[in-house]
């Protein structure tokens, strides 16, 4: 009689494959979502100023000539005066380029000074969006935040629909991965459609919750309709840091949750994440 004890077979972790699949899926969805947003601005031109890409964009800034563009004179005219002698004010012209979307241009004025007691450097800045004629425009931040939230909320649904109708997402296809309720079956069956959708939203719920809470915080912030209002709000924000602290705490909490939700399970569950365990699913290699 053998003294060896049978050990139940368990699927491998496949951490690097799953990470690569997630990155590929994110890139594919980012391109698709940016294209859709760009098409939306063509259909509804009124959204052009308020909509930006949430995924692929570049921001470049260059020093601006304050005497050429009147918006800089308007900003500095309303800028709150400071008694500090070491205050420095700089002006920059920034452009944001996105795939399939019109270029955005911003007039940015920043102030930096050293604290009197601890010597720390304090900075504050105002960004004013410009139109084609270099005149200031003030699109509703609600539009941009709404589009950004919708793009994130639609990401899990896009992955689920690709899995339901195609049998794979681009990342899982390239990495030869398959989601199944039976990891040891000779031909692993696919997850039912309902569990497929639930799994994707369970996977990304920390990011979705973070985005929705930031959306609620943004709704409570002042909305400028003129250069004077934007500069006045800057002075108010300098004395009320509650919103900034709330977002920093929220982001730190989200990183902790993501570590527990995405990273830590690989030390315990082979082939399964916490959300996989909730719906009894496994990620295995395709035959």
UniProtKB/TrEMBL annotation:
Entry keyword set: Membrane, Transmembrane, Transmembrane helix
Transmembrane spans: 19-44, 149-168, 243-264
Keyword presence, Membrane: yes
Highest taxon of source: Bacteria
Listed name of the protein: RDD domain-containing protein
Organism: Martelella mangrovi
């Amino acid at each position: 009689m053998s003294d060896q004890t049978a050990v139940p077979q368990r699927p491998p972790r496949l951490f690097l494959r799953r990470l690569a699949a997630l990155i590929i899926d994110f890139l594919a969805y980012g391109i698709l979502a940016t294209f859709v947003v760009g098409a939306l601005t063509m259909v509804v031109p009124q959204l052009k100023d308020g909509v930006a890409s949430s995924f692929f964009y570049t921001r470049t800034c260059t020093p601006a000539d304050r005497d050429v563009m009147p918006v800089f004179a308007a900003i500095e005219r309303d800028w709150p005066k400071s008694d500090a002698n070491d205050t420095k004010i700089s002006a920059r012209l920034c452009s944001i380029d996105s795939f399939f979307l019109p270029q955005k241009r911003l007039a940015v004025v920043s102030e930096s000074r050293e604290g009197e007691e601890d010597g720390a450097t304090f900075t504050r800045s105002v960004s004013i969006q410009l139109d084609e004629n270099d005149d200031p425009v003030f699109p509703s931040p609600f539009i941009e935040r709404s589009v950004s939230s919708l793009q994130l909320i639609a990401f899990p649904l896009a992955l689920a629909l690709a899995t339901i109708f195609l049998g794979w997402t681009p990342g899982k296809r390239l990495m030869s991965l398959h989601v199944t309720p039976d990891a040891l079956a000779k031909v692993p069956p696919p997850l039912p459609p309902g569990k497929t959708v639930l799994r994707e939203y369970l996977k990304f719920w920390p990011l979705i919750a973070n985005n929705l809470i930031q959306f609620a915080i943004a709704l409570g912030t002042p909305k400028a309709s003129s250069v004077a209002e934007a500069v006045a709000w800057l002075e108010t924000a300098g004395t009320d840091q509650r919103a900034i602290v709330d977002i920093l705490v929220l982001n730190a909490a989200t990183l902790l949750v993501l570590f527990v939700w995405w990273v830590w399970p690989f030390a315990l569950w082979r082939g399964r994440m916490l959300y996989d365990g909730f719906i009894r699913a496994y990620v295995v290699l395709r035959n």
